[in-house]
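ESCALATION

Customer reports they have been waiting on this structure for their group meeting. Please prioritize. Original submission:
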Amino acid sequence: MATAADVTLSDLHAPKEASITAFTSALPEIKRKLLYHRHQDNIHDKGYFRAVASVDNKDLESFTASDLEAVRVGSTAYGLHLFCKVALPAAPGSYIHVRLFIAAEDGTDGASLEDRVATVHCIHTEEVVKEGAPREYRAIFGKEDALEWFDT
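Update from on-call: job pushed to the front of the queue and completed.
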């Protein structure tokens, strides 16, 4: 499995056609996983989605490819890692960070966009531990939060 030590990510930049295509193809899976994480958070009451507590599920998942604001890309011998910063229209100033993996479709060399398959690796959630403070959990980020390598 690729790690931050193995892969150099590009600088943050506006999404190009290939990134938008990959994101669009993975959009149903992104939304399904986002709502699954929110459901699990509601069961375990960690607070990952506290920043959007007043936003219902339908509105939370109302984002489209036009809300993909920025990306970072890393290349490995077996595919691309696409890190996405996605605005949540129902919660202005709120973002999710999504990691996609893009590989050649079975039976192809992946040379063309049509021969590539994007799958959701994960939606970023984090646990913040500060000395002398209670743990904080979040899956919702702000505009200024860096889009860095993540595995969760």
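Sent to customer with the following note: The chain has a mean pLDDT of 93.
Escalation resolved.
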